[in-house]
Amino acid sequence: MPMTTLPSTTALRCLDASARLLSFTRAARELHLTQSAVSHHILQLEQLLGVPLFVRRHGGLDLTAAGQSYWKDIAQVLRHLERATESISATGGRGGMLNLSVSSTLANHWLMPRLHAFVTAHPDITLNLSTRVGPIDFTTSNEDASIEFSPGPQPGLEARLVMPLVLRPYISQHALRDFDPALAKRRKPALSKAQLAALFTAHRLISRTTVPEAWESWLAAAGLAGAVPEDHFHKGPRYALMSMAYNGVIGSLGIALLPRYITHGAVATGQLVCLSDTGWTAPRAYYLRWPSNRAEPQVLRTFSDWVTGLRQDSDT
C-alpha cells in the first residue's frame, strides 16, 4: 500500500473506539464526534482496505475476523503513539515517561516507600503508576511494563526478577493472647512444633487464591507435614488479594502466610507476631515484564536496573 493511501489517525481512533465499545454511538461520544462522522470514517477505512470490519446489526456491532485482526494490530500502534506523545510532551524531550502497572499491595507496601530514591536519582523521568488485579494485556493497555506475581518470561514477554515471594505465618497479638497469654508476652516467641500445630489447629488458616498450595507447602518446609488435619485447610477463608489476608490477620480472623514487606510495620508496633522464621518460597515471584515485540526504551532500562537492584536490600 503506497504511503499516500495510509488511513488517518482519526479513522484508526474511530476503529479502536468502535471495536472496544461495539457501538458507533458510544465511540462518537468518547471521541467527541458525531455518530455519522464515526460511521463515515469506518466506511472509508473499509473501502480503503477492501474488506468489511464490522457486521452492523440492530442495537450494536460485531467485529468481522478481518476487523478483529486489524484492530489488534492497530490498537498496539495507537497505544505506542500515545505513549511516545505523552513522554515528549511531559518531559520536553528530556528524560522520559514510564507507564507502569503494579499490584496494589506491592505498590503501597514495598515500591512507594522506596520510590523517592529513584525520583531523586532520575528527576527527568516521570513514572506513572496504575494498579490492576491479574495479568495485564499489553495489546489494549497504555502501560509500558508491569510488576506482576507471575512465572516470569513467557512467549511474547520479557521479564526480570524483582523479588521472590517468601511466606511466613503471622497471627495478631490479640489472637495469640487469647490462645496463650504467656506466649503473647514474649516479643518473639520460640514455639515448638507441638505448639505451632496446636495454634494452627485452633485458628482458621487464611489462604490466598493465587497461592492455594502455600499452607501445605509451608508446613512441609517447617517439618509439620500431617500435623494439621487435612480438612482444617478448607475451614479458613480464601482471599484474592495479599492486602485482604493481611487485614484479616490484623482483625484476628485467623493466621495467614505473609511476606515481611507487608508485615514489618505491624510487627514493629506489636500488632502482629511472626510464629516462625521458616520461610517458604513460592514457585512464582514478582517480575518486571514488558512485551517482546516493543523496543525497550532507555527509561525502562533505567527503571529495570534500579528496581531489580532493590532485591539485595529487601527483607523478603
TrEMBL record:
InterPro entries: LysR-type_TF_proteobact-type, LysR_HTH_N, LysR_subst-bd, WH-like_DNA-bd_sf, WH_DNA-bd_sf
GO BP, one annotated term: DNA-templated transcription
Gene3D superfamilies named among the record's database cross-references: Periplasmic binding protein-like II (3.40.190.10), Winged helix-like DNA-binding domain superfamily/Winged helix DNA-binding domain (1.10.10.10)
UniProt-listed Pfam families: HTH_1 (PF00126), LysR_substrate (PF03466)
HTH lysR-type domain mapped to chain residues: 7-64
GO molecular function term, any single one: sequence-specific DNA binding
Keywords: DNA-binding, Transcription, Transcription regulation
Family: Belongs to the LysR transcriptional regulatory family.
Protein's recorded name: Transcriptional regulator, LysR family
